[in-house]
Fold this sequence. Notes:
This protein is mainly alpha-helical. It contains 18 helices and no strands. It has helices at residues 2-15, 19-38, 47-57, 62-65, 71-83, 87-106, 112-130, 132-146, 153-166, 173-178, 185-204, 208-217, 225-242, 250-272, 277-285, 288-300, 309-329, 342-346.
Amino acid sequence: MFSVFTAGALEYRRRGTVGGQAAPLLLLGGLYIAVMVGFRWQVGGDWGAYEDIFTWSGTLKLSEALTLGDPAYTVLNWISNWLGFDIWFVNFVCGLIFAWGLVRFARRQANPWLAVVISVPYLVIVVAMGYSRQGVAIGIIMAGLASLERSSIARFAVYIFFAAAFHKSAIVVLPLVALSAVRNRLVVAFLLAVLAVLLYYFFVQSTFDRMVTNYVTAEYNSQGAAIRVSMNLLPAVIFLIFQKRFDFPPQQMKLWRNFSIATLVSLVFLFYLESSTAVDRLALYLIPLQLVVLSALPEAFGYKGKPNGQYIALVIAYSAAIQFVWLNYAAHADDWIPFQFFPYDLL
């Protein structure tokens, strides 16, 4: 995957291809990601937990599936059981949704292929393959972020609603986006308050006590929290220091400034909260900041309107280093290696 999108990023820069001309190949690349994510077999640290959810969902009635757990994900598992499929069906649908959001988001960047390169080492391999529900939620959020320039924040709230149906923690993105509004702020504030109540009522209320216990009260830690925060910290600092170099529309400037500030806040929380899991969940939803800032570096530090090829090479090398280090030295790398593919495994 990394090699395919790296080749695309280099070719995109060489030809100066516009987004529309590159769209079919990029969509094909997105399908490739969906297949790799969807047809993995016994890959990811939470594979056993997701198999348990799949088995449990098969014992429910549809009405129960709609009200228990993360409803969209539970219903998807229920449908797979009802059709007589295995967990690969759930993973493939999740992979399709994630890849759709990723490609849609990448197409809004100066070099879409480079944005996907940045996503492969961690967002695709670790998050989408390791945390199915959060992966889908982030994919939906990225699709919503891609539409912000052409639509309202109220419409983005619909994306948040569906993202939260796959994982409740997705609602943490809503205030970051709402605070980026450049007009109709009172209307946005009202809609945000109404939506927050609805999201709490439908998705959070039934599990609020458990979430507080797991994320705040208990010393419940995620080993990768510091790494995820650190990976977000680099683009956050770059953007806050050199934001005048980034040619973003006003709302986008405020949006990614909010994401950058939230990254700095998450770093502070990492040191002062007893539970790092809450910080870890926030860090996952801040990952799109990496794609935006790092893929825009060649244009931000270009010369006479042309992207700087050295920065493209630097971003690719940085991403390759992340992938190499993670697959070789991460504590849970054995859950990904060797990579097993579902149809092949059946043979």
